[in-house]
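User: My collaborator and I are trying to settle a disagreement about how two of our proteins should look. Neither of us wants to argue from intuition anymore, so we agreed to look at predicted structures for both before our next call. Could you fold the first one, then the second, and keep them clearly separated?

Assistant: That sounds like a sensible way to settle it. I'll keep them separate. The first protein:
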Amino acid sequence: MNVDILIGGLSYVIVLIALSVVIYRRKSLDALGCITMVVMGIIIIFSANINWLIILFLFLFISLIATRYKKPYKLERGLYEGQRTAKNVISNGLIACIMSAIGGLSLFLFGDSGLLFTCGFIGAVSTATSDTLASEIGVLRQPRLITTLKKVEPGTDGGISPLGTLIGIIGSGFIGLSAFVLGLIPNLALALIISIISGTIGCFMDSILGAVLEQKKILNNEHVNLLGTFTGSIIGILFSFIF
């Protein structure tokens, strides 16, 4: 690693730490959650590049905005999650972090990070974005259980709604658009196809696991989120072989 790259990476780390302090002071993440975010960010900065981290931060800021949207309504009905923890950061960001680290290793060894790992990264972040938006905005309408389509109370594990599904698709599409703008995927149509399909499938997998396993206390929310992003990542990787 040459000196210019090291200095540039360290400057990004300083910015990352500053952002984590702001996020902590706003009580969006607890202290351990901020530390976890910084560690994962450093891995991405020095294994891939800053554009990959920007994609992950776009998800973070979208999720924070969605969480605070209609806060009084959510508080009144006990649906407001409030301050996120390290478990939330890991369950939503671990797979994306792994994809960037492996992509960076591939870049170091072979001179190419490969579309495979990029698509896996985009699939994971698109799923996290789609699921968060579907959950935070979807609670504003009465959902139906994904396995039976029976009406359930807002906030029920495995509940889905047309509003939540639509906003989730828009969110995953935004991640694809950002990936194109930042140069991770050179073709806009491909970026949108990968992000929307992988994000939507991953989000539905999250809901299915929530309805089948989380309601029975076999898995918790973090397990479900992790498996959902893993599913989205696998779908993204499969698309890399197709295209």
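The second protein, kept apart from the first:
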Amino acid sequence: CLVIQFVMVMINHDLHEVTHSTQSCTFHPSALSTCPVHTANGTITAVKGSTALMVSAYKDYRGQRAICIIAVVNRHQTTPLYCVFCCTGEASQVTPATVLAHSVHYGYPYVAADILCFERPGCNVTHVTVATPIEDMDPLNLPFLSVQNREVEEEFPFYLTVCMSSMFGDYNNVLQFVQTMEFYKLLGVPRVVLYLTSCGPDLEKVLQYYTEEGTLEVIDWPIDHFLKPATGWELEELEGDIHLNGQLTIMNECIYRNMYRLRYVLLADVEQLLVPVAHNSLQPLMEGLQGQHPDAAVFFMETHLFPATAGKAGLSAQSRALGVNLLDYVYREPLEEDDFRSDKMVVNPRKVLQTAIFEVTQSYGDTVRVPFDLCKIMQVTEAPRENWTNDQLVLDRSLWKFRDYLVPSVDDILQKLGFYKHLFEH
């Protein structure tokens, strides 16, 4: 009778409109005496009978105060979805879900989405899942997500973290990754969050080291098991179901994951580095910016390209390790006033509702563009335009003021991991 009751509730709702409703179905507590019966095994969970993918669930105390399930949906194929709650001390419930597909998708059919689940009074939700109105759906066999952010601390344990977008394609740039991790530790970042699809065997060793050290949180991101992810930008040029390995979903998930852990989140790619120019750490930088702009929720940091064709700076001892040596790149491309700026963002996660890659699409605060003489995003890359010469580039040794710490600390890690045996010779 439990299954029949579940199906009848689904049929009685208008199946062509997925909106918040005050109607709900209540299961008897004895029917779900152990709730949930099943929890989702991986980071990504397919919703049976639909094209939707669930990622994680968070309690959101802002605005409409709902359970927000970070998800991926096909914007061309909509299916009515329903939220199934597990409650402590009360009966479990089913309510219609509100699906908010994000407006930025770069033309790909699958897009980041928020699935909002509105709990009924008296239901202290511990777990939630999403279901479709299918006759053979058994609520007892649904995979549930644990609801995170249920308890909110008034003071945050950390000040700032870095959310790195997906690592994929057997990425194996050991030296640059170690330099990046050691650099952020120097700047006062206690933990970096990385979403991992695949990496090379050498880098896997590095990830394990930093995870055991406690400075890296690796989130499994098997998006390629569910969709065909594009590894680039333009839909016309790259086949795929979703933009850039699902980066939009990753960024929004990481904001919710860290909403009540710390004050700020830096959203950046694996190969990008936030370099302060006027400060030696990130806390005084952010305190100064927030003091000048008390209503700001988003701070844009300019991205500057350091082309690989510019030549080396002569710091080659660490090149024995596999990968790019950031200290070798001291020439950056000039940035003209009308050039496109692929800026990265430091955000207050409690004031951001939805974000895209280069813009926050919904927030509660102001946006500030940070002058590049305070800080910049450094990105080593192949020159996008041919025939760059050093005379055409700008000498920029901002990173060098940190090298007296960076070189020996990176050497120490590389030796511990067995990547080369000789110390840097000062």
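Some points you might bring to the call about the second protein. Residues 2-148 form one domain. The first helix runs from residue 2 to 12.
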